[in-house]
Predict the 3D structure of the following.
Amino acid sequence: SIIDTRGIENECTEFDLHYLHYCMSLQMLIYDFHGNTNKLEIYRDVVDATLWMFSKEALITVIRGCWILYEKPTFQGQKYVLEEGERMLTDILNLHREKAQGNFTIGSIRHIMKDCSIPEIELCSHNSTDHFPIFMQTGIANLDELEVENPIISVKAGVWLAYSDTNYKGEKTVLEENQSPCKLSATDVKSFRPLKMGGLKVQMPMNTMMIIYERPHFGGWCKNLSENTDCIPILLENSDAFQGIGSIRVIGGIWVAYNKERYKGRQYLLEEGEYEHWQSWGGVSSDLLSVRFLQANFMESEVTLFETDEENGKVLDVINQDIPDLELAGFGLVTRSVVVKSGVWVAYQQKYFCGEQYILEKGKYKCFLDWGGTSETIMSIRPIKLEPLGDHQPIHWIKAFDNIHFQGSCIDFTTEAADFTSFIPCSFKVLRGCWLLYYQGKAAVEQCVLEEDLYPDLASCGCSATKVKSLKPVEHVFAEPLISLFALENCEGKELHLQEATSSVLNKEFHFLTQSIWVKSGIWIAYEGCNFLGKQFLLEPSKISNWTQFSGWKTIGSLRPIKQPAMYFRIKNRSQEKYLTVAGSLMDGRATSVCLFPQNGKNTQIWHYSHGLIKSKVNDACLDVIGGRDIPGAKVALWAEHGKPRQKWTHNKDGTITSYLSDQLVLDIKGGDYYDKNHIIVNQLNINELTQKWNFEIL
């Protein structure tokens, strides 16, 4: 269940027609208050939060923006700064969880950052007028290096943290814009840094739903939208009375709004969250006439910018990275064409993600007209990234509707369901994981595989019936697909070895009549017809000695591996209850190690699986057996992706993680009594060794 703080307090956003800042929707979640597993969603300032009681297990997740918790109501008392990420409330309040007694309260909550404007701070000497002021836009780890005596500090833009020790350690002081300049003692402040907003995010890309309102602050008439809408006014009974949109709530998905019909005109990206008025989405007015949602691989994004049409012209390749200043990155002010290789990117007319926005999806944009621009100027660019849902969400999740096109009543399923007598599903949104849909065929119960996608009717599912019998989640698998088809029974005779989709095994190239199957790894979907049409069958790792007897089909027409669901996870060792963690300098791969560490709520413990690679969310590097040595004791660290066998892994059902170098080499902890006892190695497989067993905790 959800407790909602919408309507507690409204605060307008600063707006400048000449220099548009993209203002993100703010969001903070608090789990487990008063001993329950409910969640509290906070979108704006809370003047008095003392009515909420939290247990010592309360977890705070900041999804967007930077916030301050105050000890007392009306933003008074001790301050606790929260940046994007996940932390236990007891850690934030500096309480020892074991000694903490009873419940806790928070006085008030305030957001302190809502856009990506350039931070700036001014330092000048208090004792002398001979020194010119120093302006800083980045942090400094040691204030003494500036050699400014008794500095007076003034925040020109953004929010800054001043620390009592060097290297951003010690007691913290919050310095905000528009505060009076303050004198800093060299003994009190040794370092400072600006707070920064995170990038563009989406948590539930398949849960496409938004609510548009007539007036600001969610007043007047409202309309629910689940599908692309090329003309909003026609949704109203009296379209002539349409005066624009006053406010928006994006329940799920990532959307683009346009100020003209049929997806034309100025573009506005809408993340999940709330937009109280047209200024909060960066608009120039309340005119929004069409909207559509975006679908892509939001985990891995790649784009190439071309400065000219010449073959030897300047080119910039960007992978999973925000570029606030393309000129500083070595690219020019002119972008002639763009090729998006994966993901969705947002380009901006000005630096630091300001000015007009251009949504770039997979494909080629030959000139600025293709992306909706008025010139070839692009000065900053960044991808939309998938954000982990957290620890308290189901790992399988499907929404079923009793009418087509996601209309009518809706029921959420997170486990197997077999009773559809009173509720008859007609359309589905598969939010998490893959599902098996069973329906009554002409002679037997048939099945369809539903991957993470939108299914507006049963035909789009591949279901030929009108009534669903049951739904069943498909177990998550972290292994590359591998299957062998055999021309004889009992996995004998001619063998067809496949690792990727095949649109026809009956064509002239193969003309293969499948009699038996060995699914060696991964999960596959078999189709009775060619081109992935006809009846379906889910194939999990096993041997099928007689395909016709098993399935009722004469042969297989086509087959493909199931799509790897988009998800992040933590990797926990069963022996120590600690997590696989990236340690060391993230900027220098040679100074990075992989070790075990207690849960810290940071991206250093978050991973995802792609084509056999276990990749870190913090820097996109992969688990790698250093030197590629297939011997027990070889060190495992992070390295840039190259795709060789030493970077590839399989997570087995028994909990072991096997290296592609050898099926007898598995991930293990080094052990011993030295400093590197918690570092990770590959070791000889020992099925009784608990240090070799790992759980993937899906977020």
User: Anything to note?
Assistant: The two ends are 18 Å apart (CA to CA). Residues 302-386 form a domain with the Gamma-B Crystallin; domain 1 fold (CATH 2.60.20.10).
